[in-house]
Write the structure tokens for this entry.
Amino acid sequence: MLWMTLLACSGHAEEPQKESETMTNFYTRQTRINDVMNDAVFGDYGRLIFPVNTGYWSGTTLEQLALTWYNYIDPDKTVEVCNYLRAHADNCFIDIYTEAEKQANPELRNTGLFFFRGNSNAPFAICNAGGGFSYVGAMHDSFPHALELSKLGYNAFALIYRPGDAYEDLARAIAYICDHADELGVCRTGYSLWGGSAGARMAATLGNSANLRSLTGRTDLPQASAVVMQYTGYTTVSQYDGATYACCGTSDGIASWRTMQSRLESLSALGIPTEFHSYDGLPHGFGLGTGTVAEGWLQDAVHFWQSQSGSTSVRSTKADTKQSDSIYSLNGTRRNAMQKGINIVDGRKVAVK
């Protein structure tokens, strides 16, 4: 019988972060958007805080920001996000591609991760904004989510991706974070993928273990513990899909809530954990839903994620145990227990005879 000790990362981030409560409110509702992007504290990455494709957003000040296909943009949250980024300007942005890669392909300069730090060694989430694969609406559809997750103690990353190569960039981001987990201070396993609209398609696609292996070309990366999706018409269903939480408004003219519900019913029929919520009267792109009937949905999604993340302590595990949060097959499929042959346990190959 094979015995081994597994050090599992904390599945619950129980001590919320306090930094955002005391950071300087340098920006206000009246701050010009261009002044944020051009603020010297951000260096070269300031231009990525708002969409690179300027044809999909408008407004002069933070209060006036409007994004195509989005509703209920909260100016106060926009200001809070910008002040958070400024307060953490020295370490909030991460390049996922090397300088050599960016020189070979200049479009890669329009990518990166904005890091909203939680507790040390807590699980991480990658938040992917939508934008119809035409632009990245991060200021409403991923930055606020990441900020709120960090307040709960989770480590959250908001991905800025190339709309034409979104899946490739998300695959690279997952690999980068897993490979640099120790230096980033995050748990490599038990992570979640979040997204709205086009970003939800990205999360669902990379939350599928077969797609993760195909798009990264690797077998050692763990599958996401949970996928959190908002307002998308994504319909693909597979036995390799991850546990999925989804929500949508009943007045969404772009993504039907019935389509989302139907997909989750199909996933449930395969034995995949799901949770679905629809919100009466809400249109597409409500983000956090502050001030609407959807307000608080993020906490529901976090609880779903927690329920998929497993135990949170150091434990001694037999080969025939049913602890599943860190055991995977070579093709990246999560397992309930180690099986004969090669298993991937916390990113390491373990052979069971």
In short: Confidence is low (pLDDT under 50) at residues 1-8, 311-325. Residues 16 and 152 are 4 Å apart (CA to CA). The two ends are 9 Å apart (CA to CA).
